[in-house]
Each structure stands twice: as structure tokens, then as C-alpha cells.
Design brief:
mainly alpha; globular
């Protein structure tokens, strides 16, 4: 019996497709946009991640999670100045982070 190896990318790609469809149907869904941005960030697709995380932060401007995620994104992509700006905004909204 040949056993297939588990490929997590298959599941991630399916999840990306589901979230993309969800966002197409409901562009104002901040959480779906943020989840999509987070998945793209994990895939190191920074431009796509930025697009969806920025949209989430515009839809829910008081949600510090979106600014923290943007800070992480810019930090990982090497833009430390921009990362610090988003981390600052996140800590303004939630000083305990």
C-alpha cells in the first residue's frame, strides 16, 4: 500500500479560494479580509497580504490586531520604519501588547 504524503499547501490553497470568494461577495467583511491577508502573509505574498490587511484596518479602524499584523508584514519584508508606524498604532489602540 502506497501512502501519499500530506501536503498542507493543498489545504491552504483551498482555504485561500474560499476566502477570496467570501471577500468578493462581502467586500466589507473585515475579518475575512484580515484572514486572507494573514494567509497571504504566511505564504510570503506580501503585496497581496498588504492589500487585504489594509482593507481590514480601514473597515475596522479600532481593531489593533490588523495594525499589529501590518507591522509584522512590514517588519518581515524589511521596511522597519513602516513596521514601527503600524506597531505604534496598534499599541495606541491596545497598550498591553
Amino acid at each position: 500500500m502506497v501512502q501519499k504524503k500530506f501536503n498542507p499547501n493543498v489545504i491552504i490553497n483551498c482555504y485561500l479560494k474560499v476566502l477570496e470568494e467570501s471577500v468578493k461577495k462581502d467586500k466589507d467583511n473585515a475579518r475575512a479580509n484580515a484572514l486572507l491577508g494573514t494567509l497571504y502573509f504566511q505564504q510570503k505574498s506580501y503585496a497581496r497580504a498588504q492589500k487585504y490587511l489594509l482593507l481590514a484596518s480601514r473597515l475596522e479602524p479600532l481593531n489593533f490586531h490588523w495594525y499589529k499584523a501590518l507591522g509584522d508584514l512590514f517588519f518581515d519584508s524589511g521596511d522597519i520604519s513602516e513596521a514601527l508606524s503600524y506597531y505604534s498604532k496598534a499599541t495606541e489602540l491596545e497598550p498591553k501588547i
